[in-house]
Amino acid sequence: MGRGVSSGGGQSSLGYLFGSGEPSKSAGDNPNPAPTPAAAAVDNSKQIPAGIPGNTTNNYFRADGQNTGNFITYLLWWRTNVALDHFYPFIIAVSASGKTNGVDSDLNPACKVSSFHSIADTDGASILYQQQLAPDPKLHSHLLRVPLPSSPSSLLSLFLEICNRFPFSWRPPHRFHLFLLSHHPSFSLSPIAASKLLDVFGKSRNIDLLWSHLRLMADRRLLSVSSLRIAARSLADANEISKCVLLFRLDPQFLTAGALNSVVDVICARKHVQIAHAVVSKLRDSIPADADTYKLLIIGFCRAGDLSQAAKLWNLMIDEDMSPDLDAYNEILITLFKSNATQEAMRFFKSMRKNLGIASYRVMIDWTCKVRRVSYAYMVFAEMIKRGIGFDNSVLGHLIYGLLGKKRVNEAYKVFKEAEGVDLSICHGMMKGLLSIRRPGAATEVFREMVARGVEPNMHTYIMLLQGHMGKRGRKGKEVAVNFDSIFVGGVVKAGNAAEVGKYVERAARGGGGDVPRFDYNKFLHLFSNEEGVKMFEEVGRVLKKVGMVDIGDVLLVYGERMATRERRRRALWGSQVGVCQLELVDSST
Predict the structure, then answer these.
(1) Cα–Cα distance for residue pair 164/169, rounded to 1 Å
(2) Angle at Cα 257 formed by Cα 251 and Cα 260, nearest 5°?
(3) Bias category Gly residues: which stretches (predicted)?
(4) How far is the C-alpha of 25 from the C-alpha of 32, rounded, in Å?
(5) For the chain, does the N or the C end have fewer beta carbons within 10 angstroms?
(6) Where are the alpha helices (DSSP H) in 471-549?
(7) What is the pLDDT of residue 442?
């Protein structure tokens, strides 16, 4: 740590913080000085120590490297005097509400703040982390020094807080659980706390401890379907098929198709559809698969790219006289198009067209327009109208995109103008089609009209327009001072993420050439989604319009205005929450 530098009067910043709370005195100081009126009006506990920004007597954040100790001093001072002032009203209000993480608490507000303070500020959680490998007597001796609440509900809230602090480390929550069981006989896990601890074991990949905890939960009747989902997720990640099957043997209440479908759903969501299929096959005698089970497996195999296995399950459903779900049908249709099997997709659509609704027709029109089969998309659209199936603007957006892809611009504009209500989907179809034929100026005109009609753009709108104007990998602009490198690459560098755009910096230094990855416009917009970014977008937008880049300037200006509105709305919401918390604090104190 850097050396401490004392301010006038012999006061040491480190002595101020780590001493008795008063400034240290030199040998020549008067031990009992008379306080001046100005000094009497200042709260000594909240004075800014020497070397802290805001204390103009002595600023130690110098450019000579002698500032390490003072930076740590600043952090300690901020934690002691600033952070607690800002967050204590919120802590008291939350404690006064009587619930923490869904668990009732019967402590009064003063005791709740004391228990939170004892854990957070006397480093109870740090003890669990630092002593997690220590023997039980040593760990317990440290924890016994922390003033813990005595109420079982408060201990349960505290245990949930520890689990939230260590979501990927099993030792601190597990050892704290054992400590509570040994030193607080009244403590017992609730279903929520038991599932939370189970989630920690699963995320830390401790399968043995997870399984033993599952058996303990089964003995104490704490298991639920959500517990099975948590356990199945981790067991599938570890390729524990036999244990996934044994989950349903822990309690007879889980030998149902609903529990099976819930577990299959979470396993397929983790992209382990082969494991889900094996579990269903092994449980066939105990839990027969129903239509929802087949639907989940078919969708899982389609998203994994295994279309042949999905087709086998589809045929098996037909053989068992089950009507296939439309979601499974749509997923097979999408997978056929993604596999470039356009003719097979069309034949599959014809075989099922009598039982289809608007969702399936929308999928068909969308993908036929993407593969430039606009005439077939119009035939499907005409069939929709003939059958009396209503269409929405998303269908029109797909048709507009397909028409523009074939450069039938007049027809696309005709459909756009004849639409009853312009929404985001139809505007996106128009802009995406215009950008595909390299007409970013026309796409920006659609963007202006969309904003004028009160349609709120989303992040995809801005990213799509930025890519259309500047390119996915950036284009060198005519103006040296205002171009892709100066705005976007320079903005990422200014935000402190220079390593992410190193290839672009090298390309700019060489004057062009070289292979660079696709620029992440989403990350760029996220970095400046704050008050500083609002001013930056306004300034850059005005400069771009001055040099003739009106379209891209308007896009950034609109984003800056929308971002300012969101920022003010966010601050207003936070201010209202703080006001409610302070009101609850006053009510609880009275």
Answers:
(1) 10
(2) 65
(3) 1-12
(4) 10
(5) C
(6) 484, 490-494, 502-510, 521-527, 531-546
(7) 95
